[in-house]
Design goal:
Elements: H1 7-11, H2 14-18, E1 22-24, H3 25-30, H4 35-42, E2 49-52, E3 55-57, H5 65-76, E4 81-83, H6 84-91, E5 105-109, E6 121-125, E7 133-135, E8 138-140, H7 143-150, H8 157-169, H9 175-185, H10 191-201
Parallel strand pairs: 5-6
Antiparallel strand pairs: 1-3, 2-3, 4-5, 7-8
Helix pairs in contact: 6-7, 7-9, 8-10
Length: 208
């Protein structure tokens, strides 16, 4: 009978290392770890823990911010992209909450079969696929799309204005690209967002 592979060998696998120490159950099984061994390793005292359904953190310590974001992507599937406030924080915007201070992580998935939102991960099915932009080795939507997806989660007009001001004044993306994404994200029109967008972006944004 073959000797089981020690858990630390899986943690050192290049795939797992590239994924910040996080892997799906299927990935671990493809690496040769039996499902029964995965379950055993996730029971106290470890050495692993379940981060999300079907997503394993190959250590017992609390996940880092990077591992939480990686776990969100792995949970939502290979087509998932980080968007909204978490993606904007990865892009380095200062007008959104810092990574770790916002408990929820938003991901968009352009696929028919998407998992439900769970724990800290908010899954948003979309019929508008976005380009994959690697930011700190994590898959994100392009900045204009992340801005548009963040707007519903900002509590007040001042927060909206601060975000749009930073994006446009720093020249991080073109105002008309932001306007196009907001129009696509809210076709019915959100008066609050429309008013702020017109004030910050200017007349070229058009009407929502």
């Amino acid at each position: 009978m073959p000797t089981p592979t020690p858990p630390h060998r899986f943690a050192a696998d290049p795939l797992v290392v590239a994924q910040d120490g996080v892997a799906t159950v299927h990935q671990l099984m493809d690496l040769g770890c039996a499902s029964s061994a995965i379950a055993a390793h996730c029971r106290p005292p470890g050495p692993w823990r379940r981060l999300m359904p079907r997503v394993i953190l190959l250590r017992t310590a609390a996940p880092t911010i990077q591992q939480r974001l990686r776990g969100a992507l792995l949970y939502a599937g290979p087509d998932a992209l980080l968007t909204g406030p978490a993606a904007l924080a990865l892009y380095g915007l200062e007008s959104v909450p810092r990574l770790g201070s916002h408990p929820e992580v938003d991901v968009v998935v352009a696929h028919r079969a998407v998992p439900r939102s769970h724990a800290y991960v908010r899954v948003h099915p979309t019929v508008r696929p976005a380009l994959r932009v690697p930011v700190r080795n994590l898959a994100c939507t392009p900045l204009p799309r992340a801005v548009a997806d963040a707007l519903p989660h900002l509590a007040d007009p001042a927060s909206l204005a601060a975000l749009l001001t930073e994006v446009t004044e720093r020249g991080l993306c073109r105002p008309d690209d932001v306007a196009a994404e907001v129009r696509a994200a809210a076709p019915a029109g959100d008066p609050r967002v429309a008013a702020v967008l017109r004030r910050i972006v200017g007349p070229e944004a058009g009407s929502l």
